[in-house]
Every structure is written in structure tokens, then in C-alpha cells.
Amino acid sequence: MTAEEFRKSKEDKAKSILSGEKNINGLKVRFVNIDFLKSGDRRQGKQSSSNVVHASDRVFVLAEFNGIRIPFYIVTGDGGKEKVAVGKWYPSFGHLGWINKGTQEEINDAYGSKALKNIKNWLDQNVGFLGETDDNGYFGLTSETRASESAGDAKVFYDSLNRDLRPTERKFLWRTPEEKLQEQKNIQLGKQHMIDLVAKATGENKVEDSSATISSAVGVLKNYIVSKCKGDAYEIFLWSEGKSIVNNPPIEIRNIIMGMNPKISGSNFVIDNIDAVNYFKAWVPMKTLGDEAFEYILDNNENYLKLYRDFGRPTGRQNIEIIKKLETEGFDSDNFKALDKAEQQLKSSKAIRKIRF
């Protein structure tokens, strides 16, 4: 058997396995045909279609369930993601010259979707890795199922594969910092679109109207920030002009953040959030801030300072600093001398009491 005949036999076997409706853990799935142009098809006025296609040195299938279509591809290891197993199938949120995908953790977790993970496992068990047969093996597929991605040809393949998705096209040439940030933002939005699409189609992790769930969503975000404070609640004060920076949040927190139109820089998500002060007001009652957190709001945010004064439990020294900051009008020099004296007494005393004026 020649290499071409061997590739053809594997290709035909994969097509046969993928044909017809599958019941994958209770979900009815069809692997529908993907339209594409082979090299030379356009000149001849032809168009090809197959339920398994090779492009960009990857093999693709298109899973259709409950009215939506999600592409899956075989990982080759060329992308440099060391923690993602080579030869396994994974979902993608689009392909425009490069495969749109998330972090290694998100890829391995199938973006938190049980349905996508079940389909991925079915493909691994039933289709497996269409391995190379020679240097030009196309991962076991023949040239008959290889999509041309040359100018003018690629659109047919991309439009068919990405029908329900919002993929990002990556510029591999020089980009400005603003373009890089916008690209990262578009990637995150495309990923979230797929996650929401699958959730709505399957009912898992039910997605509700954002206006109805915003209060619970911001509460989850607040709790996450507080959980990272390591004792003194400092990170909850990383607000500047109504913004907060959240570093490398887990996927469930990232899903909430993406609904807040963040700016993305690497693993940092910068959030515009009008609820910042309300977060603090809900969190601070009966709390005593650590020195670092207190100095931060003392220097940067009077709204927080007033809320801490009214609802929190400032130490004696903190109370004096608050009065100096907020109530300077109406105090003469003797008043400040008295405050300074009280502050000195507090520094020399182990007892801490709350001073009210």
C-alpha cells in the first residue's frame, strides 16, 4: 500500500465514523460538512465539502448540536502549549489564519463546558489522532480534503467553519500597543461569545440577562478580590478613577469580568466599574484596615475614607489621620496641637481605642 493509499484509507475511515447523528452523553451531535476550496478549485469554478478537513497543518471537524456549530481540531504541539496533549481533539472559538484559543488551562478544561468536553472525549476515543504517514502526510488526510488558505480561497473555509463564532484575525507584523490591547480584547470577547453560545444551547451554566445578574456577578468579583488580600484587604483598594486591576483570574471570574468591557494587558484585566464604592461600603463594616491599605485610601480616595470612618473600625491613629484629612476647615492651630499630642500618646501606648469627636 502506498502512502497515498494509506492516507486515503484513514481519511475514509474518519469520514465514516463521523457520519450520522451521534448521542454523546445525551447530547445529539452531528459532524457536519465544512465547505472549502482546494488548490485550483476557484479557477475551475468548483467548491469542496467534507466532514473532516485539513488546514493550517491541523485537522478540523465541525460539531453541530442544538442549532449551533463549534469547530474542533487536533493539537500538533506546534503552538508551544506544553501542557496541552499532542494528538488530542480540542474545541476552538474560531479560525482566521490562526486558531483562536485560550490559555492551556482553559483548553484542557474545554472552556468550562461539560458538553464540549464530552464531544472532545468522544473524538479522542473514536477518531483519535490522524497521524502523519510521511513528511507531507497532512495528518493522515489526502490533498482532496486540504483547504487552500491562499488569498481569495480561504474565505469559503473560514466562513463555513466560523458560522456561529466571532474569531479574531491576528496581525503577525508589527502592531502598536493599542492594536495589541484591542486584539487581546477581541480574543477574550470571541472566547466569551462561544462560552455563552454553548451555555445557552445546552442549558449548562445557565446564562441570564446581564442586567438581572449584575449584582450577584459583582459580588462574586468582590469576593474574589477580597480572597486575594492576604489579611489586610489591600487589593480591593486598587481602584483608580473608577478602575480596578485583576491579575490572572480563574475562568469563572474571567467570565464575569468580560461582561464589564475590560482593557486587557497580558494577564491583567482593567475594569471600569461604577460599583467600586458600593463594593467597599458592603465590605468594610466592622473592619479594621491594615496600614498599607489605610495609607492607600488616605492618599487616594476620600470616598473610601469617609465610608471607613462611618462604617469601619479605624484605629485611634487612623481616626486622627482621617480627621486631619477630611476636617481641616474649622480647626485652629490648638486643635491640631491636641490631635498631634493624642497621636503621640497612641504611639507610646499598646492599647488601641476608637476616638470619636
Q: What is the alpha-carbon Rg in Å?
A: 29 Å
Mean pLDDT: 75
SSE string, helices as H and strands as E? HEEEHEEEEEHHHHHEEHEEHHHHH
The secondary-structure class comes to alpha+beta
Counting copies of identical and different chains, the oligomeric state is: single chain
Give a quick set of tags describing it:
13 helices; 357 residues; 6-stranded antiparallel β-sheet; 43% helix
Task: Give a brief description.
This protein is α+β, with helices and mostly antiparallel strands. The protein has 13 helices and 12 strands. The protein has a domain at 3-202.
3D architecture notes:
- With 357 residues, the protein is α+β, with helices and mostly antiparallel strands.
- It has a domain at 3-202.
- 43% of the residues lie in helices and 15% in strands.
- It contains 13 helices and twelve strands.
- The strands form three sheets. Strands 1, 2, 5, 6, 7 and 8 form a six-stranded antiparallel sheet that branches. Strands 9-10-12-11 form a four-stranded antiparallel sheet. A two-stranded antiparallel sheet has the order 3-4.
- A hairpin with a 2-residue loop joins strand 1 and strand 2.
- Helix 12 runs antiparallel to helix 13 (333-347).
- The longest helix is centred in the middle third of the chain and has 26 residues, at 177-202.
